[in-house]
Amino acid sequence: MPAGPAVQGRSVGNSGTPAGNAGARRRAGRPSAALLDKAGITAAALELINRKGYDGLTMAGLAKELDVAPSALYNHVASKRDVLLLVEDHLTSLVDVSDFGSAPWEEAVRSWAWSYRNVFARHTPLIPVIAVLPVTDAPQTLAMYETVSKGFLDAGFPQDRVVSSIVALESFIFGSAYDVTAPADIFDSGTMAGSTPHFTAAVRSAANGDGSPADAAFSLGLEALISGLGALRG
User: Fold this and answer.
1) Distance (Å, whole) CA 172 – CA 141
2) SS3 of 219, please?
3) pLDDT digits (tens, 9 = 90+) for 50-108
4) Is the distance from CB of 85 to CB of 134 less than 8 angstroms?
5) What is the DSSP string of 202-218?
6) Which of 76, 92, 195, 227 is most buried (most C-beta within 10 Å)?
7) Distance spanning both ends of the chain, measured CA to CA
8) pLDDT tens readout for residues 147-169
9) Which residues of 198-231 are buried (b: 16+ CB within 10 A; e: fewer)?
């Protein structure tokens, strides 16, 4: 679930305490467990992963990030898997599925896939984990799959091809999210340019195109998938 919005527009007195609440300052030391919530845990976990990578996400590290005792954290989440489910659900809630049910299937898949890629391009350390994380008890994630599945069924897909079609698209989406963060010279042949003339020329030609090479590749592959999967429709 998304983290709550920051409180804005509150005046602050000379003591640094919000005006009208000078006697309500929290005691020094670790905050009580009551101050924790799942939105805060999710935001802290994402911040920790963005700084230290997935391996940096430990329950002890997360408790330190939140400035609470580990026992307080365990009052809200039983394990690291529970934390990952919160993160998965939060990221999935950012993926746009609004065109399913209101636009043609091709357009809905296109907007969903671009949104999905863009969300995970900002969180690539989580892709290897979330790509294989069971969706059990993840309400936002299941809601996304429900909407997308209904969109496929309404478009005439055989029921036994819906999940495999979604997985095919997700495999491409996750890989393309990595490509967004790839270095510009990833295909530089270096001293082997002379012995790889066709590849080197193709790379140079692609570099002369307009826009982002990652976007161009994603658009090309996505349109091919939409065209190929569309043939399954009844």
Assistant:
1) 18
2) helix
3) 888 888 899 999 999 999 999 999 999 999 999 999 999 999 999 999 999 999 999 99
4) no
5) HHHHHHTSSS-HHHHHH
6) 92
7) 36
8) 999 999 999 999 999 999 999 99
9) eebeebeeeeeeeeebbeeebbebbeebbeebee
